[in-house]
Write a sequence for this structure.
């Protein structure tokens, strides 16, 4: 399991990015022309949540890719016998 951690982190990052984008589209949406201030405040909070989850997913994705590259470099430098 230890050798698969970068792949798992990348998968979690992709899942967070896709789910937060879907959440933003389906639950936040575009504000209407005559929405109440309460509705606009709710959309603002939900939008901030979706953006935060998106950036967290992107961070997980980048950490997983960087971790995979770091693990791969020593294997490439070993002399083949």
């Amino acid at each position: 399991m230890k050798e698969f951690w970068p792949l798992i982190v990348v998968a979690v990052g992709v899942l967070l990015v896709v789910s937060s984008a879907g959440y933003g589209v389906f639950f936040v949406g575009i504000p209407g022309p005559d929405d109440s201030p309460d509705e606009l405040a709710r959309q603002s909070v939900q939008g901030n949540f979706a953006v935060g989850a998106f950036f967290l997913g992107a961070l997980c994705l980048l950490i997983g890719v960087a971790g995979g590259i770091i693990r791969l470099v020593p294997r490439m430098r070993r002399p083949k016998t």
Residues 18 and 54 are 8 Å apart (CA to CA). The chain is about 80% helix and 0% strand. Residues 37-77 form the longest helix (41 residues).
